[in-house]
Amino acid sequence: MNDLEVRQLRFFLAVAEELHFGRAADRLNMAQPALSRAIRHLERQLGVTLLERTTRQVRLTSAGQVLVRDARTVLEAVTAAAHRARQAGSPSPQLRIALKADVDGGLLPQILDAYSAGEAALPAQLVLGGLGEQPQALRDGRADVALLLRPFDDRGLDSEPLLTEPLLAALAAADPLAARTRLCLADLTGRRLIGGPPAAHGRTAEPRHAESPPRPDLPGGQEPPPGVARPAANLAEIFSLVEAGSVVFFAPASVARRYPRPGIAYRPVSDLPDSTLAVAWPQDARSPAVAAFVRAASSVAATARPQVSPAGVATGPNW
User: Fold this and answer.
1) What CA–CA distance (Å, rounded) separates 189 from 184?
2) Which letter does DSSP use for residue 308 in this model?
3) CA distances from 109 to 148, 194, 218, 248 (A)
4) Which of 228, 235, 259, 283 has a Cα-to-Cα distance from 66 of 20 to 30 A?
């Protein structure tokens, strides 16, 4: 069997993810017949059927499902190798830190100060992205280390927890629930959540943080289903929606401390799981700068002591 080519894996993965040859061809900017021929050639080369094709649908076979998983790993490794080689060969190497703005537990300035004081420190470059994008940035070599919230896709990554803090419900200050000192998820029944459906009686959809990414099932220009709040692009938009009474969102206590607003009340939710900030890095990382950053982050987090009220909420206006 001849060795597989990266190009073949890219073609197959596009079809496997789209489950439609036309859409996959458009995504790859190539003609559909050429893509179909390439997939048939790949199947002959491997001696297995990867895709079941009918006039109505395309489905992965068991062999195709295995190749999807391994193809993603291979393509991530190829992309990472290119990014890391460029970084290593740069005349001015940097430590690239992936994170979502404001998702750092309020610790980033102290971590950077502690890190930069060490002998192994390189100049730090922040790689900002949406919530949930940091693990992929580590895997494909765009970042060397990351600050992110658990749980996350930890394939090929090592991590250490830094800070655990409560998730608070952010409500309009005029909301009747704001008069309470503590809530439970059942109290939020019928309220709209950022990027999710209305809370059901006694439960909600999986809790989403303030910076939850846009829903993948809402392509550009399409309106969300009834009862679902359109994802906001940033905290400023989210705050405006909350103050207007349109939505409720869940924010780590550190975000609430950093953004007190008279129109918003932050309240603890007794049955909402805590938020855990972690530092993560590729398992095969051998960089002294990465190790220095992880040590600095762990040291700073160990001494962090958020101020809390008797009700267990970080102190400040309306919370």
Assistant:
1) 10
2) B
3) 15, 28, 36, 29
4) 283
Residue 225: C-alpha distances to residues 199, 208, 213, 217, 232 (Å)? 14, 18, 17, 10, 15
Longest pairwise C-alpha distance within the chain: 70
The strand pairing partners of 277, in sequence order, are 149, 163
Separation CA 149–CA 165 (nearest Å)? 11
Residue given tokens 């004081």 in the structure block:
117
State how far the Cα of 136 lies from the Cα of 146, in Å rounded to an integer: 10
Q: Of 28, 78, 73, 70, give the one whose Cα is nearest residue 50.
A: 70
> Comparing C-alpha atoms, which of 283, 29, 287, 258 is closest to residue 165?
258
Distances (CA, A) of 248 to 71, 144, 150, 271, 284: 39, 34, 21, 16, 40
Query: What are the CA-CA distances from residue 2 to residues 42, 54, 214, 226 (Å)?
Result: 10, 29, 41, 52
Tokens 């610790």 belong to residue:
107
Distance (Å) of CA 319 to CA 104, 108, 158? 20, 23, 35
Encode pLDDT of 90-133 as tens digits: 677 899 999 998 889 999 999 999 999 988 999 999 999 988 89
Distances (CA, A) of 3 to 6, 33, 47: 10, 23, 13
67 or 224: whose pLDDT is higher?
Answer: 67
- Domains of the chain in start order, with CATH, are 6-85 (1.10.10.10), 94-160+276-303 (3.40.190.10), 167-268 (3.40.190.10)
